[in-house]
Amino acid sequence: MSKAPTYRAPSDCPVCGDELITTRLGCRNCGSELAGEFGHCDFCALDERETELLRVFLASRGNLREVEKHLGVSYPTARARFTELLMKLGLGSDANTVPTMTREQVLSEVATGALDPAEAAVLLANLD
């Protein structure tokens, strides 16, 4: 039996923006279905980049220097990305946990391609 392609389920309602819940599960093999309200998976809401960061972090046993090397970014960028991941998973305590970089460091990271413009915009907004 060939495996069907896997798609990421959306986590937010495209109509109102509220959190979606899982209400039906099915078996590809026998066609059985189970209906009900099932618990939310925090990790299922991560995008590919965030999942890769988490995999690299776990594979490196929590060593951010190894994450930095694997992703080809600076240590402050690796740390900032990991802090953003923690915040998304509800594990960050507050905005004070976001590491600070100088404006020059952020712009330098963008210039080398180690930091994308969207991340830079968030970091620069936190500097103000």
Automatic annotation (TrEMBL):
Pfam annotation, one family: DUF2089
Organism domain of life: Bacteria
Domain DUF2089: 13-44, 46-91
Name of the molecule in the record: DUF2089 domain-containing protein
Organism: Propionicimonas paludicola
